Amino acid sequence: MPRTPLLIATLLLCLAACSQQDSVSSDDANTRADNPFFAGATAQMPPQPRHNSAPVDPGRLPPGTIALQRAVISDPGVIAQGPALSALVPAGWRTEGGIVSPQSSCSEPYLVNWMAMSPDGNSGLAIFPTDVWQWSTYPIQSPCPNQTLRSVREFLQAKVTQAFPGARPLDYRNRPDFSRSAEEQAQRLQQMAHGMGLTQMRVYAEGGELLFAFNRNGVDMRGVMGVTAKFQGGVVPNPLDGSAMESFTGYTLGTFLAFAPEGQLNFDLIEATRRSILPDPRWLHSLFERQGQIGRANAQATSELAAIIVAGGAEATRRNIAAFEQIARNSVKNSQQSVAISEAGVAAAHNSGVSYSNESTESRMQRERIEGIRGVETYHDPVDGNQVQLDANYEHAWRVNGQEAYILTRDPNFNPGAYGIEATQMGTVR
To answer: CA 381, 90, 208, 148 torsion: positive or negative?
Structure first.
């Protein structure tokens, strides 16, 4: 048998496997064993700072207004001990989980397995360990599960059935906003493959979410699961009979879940939490260092490493890690005003609800690109002087005094004092 077609097929598989540094994977044991929803465990919120005012009661807020508090998704030392990600969860909810070690060799060196639960335990949000699988029309040896899932819709239907036996799919919708960043990365990977002569290589990304119904302890529940996934592989002719030899790898770049009793699934709240998730820049540095070590051990490793943490999140790469660093660490001295703005201009900007940053033009463009992909707006936090990215679907944001909590509203006349809340209104960063 001629060696050329087999060599092309091998290279396709190698490139797919080596680029797993862009993915995370796990098996069903990870999904179930460490997840408090399935295990029935009581999740606990990490210790919170002392409050200067009473905790926010979301139930007292008017319709169209939500309250979120910051939660840390920690790494016990899988990549680097300390905070790995942060998220804004509904005020009063408790969290559990974090970064866990992979259980399969078909994986990145870390997995995210995390959940936030309402006080009554009936509603929750979660990030599942993500998945990788392969399929081919000829026998291959691979540690990855052999599954023929050729689209995000097929993956979500299988994942929901796996996680919630007896669940009934209700509706599916494409989410191109989820996959925007992954599509850009897929295009770069395909161009790289074609530059190597692998013209049969195809790389594409999809985003979507599935609404489903299930029963939990006799309660009719609703859930929504969203995911971004990439698919890569190719088709070459069989040298024996000319038939197509197909081999593809699929892997998710973050699976996000929300559930609640029927009629209580708050999609605005779900989106606000999903969009708030950000990687810690120090943890990202450690992740890229680990990925680089793996890359040096694989001759075909991709030159650009990326982490897309949850469905619809912007990629974090060596190219734009500075933007994430600036988002995470900006202080009052470099977010309150630009040196080019006069004192009168600063006062006018403050009164108009706008803050100005002295970041470079390149950094600002990168930040605004990330804002567009993630669907967020960057605000200046007047309490601690930092910047925070919040859901852009809300036009007004307040920082609760003495708590790392935020109130988002569409009501320009909202007055937190009317609800016994001490809070300061925030201005967007320009």
So the answer is: positive
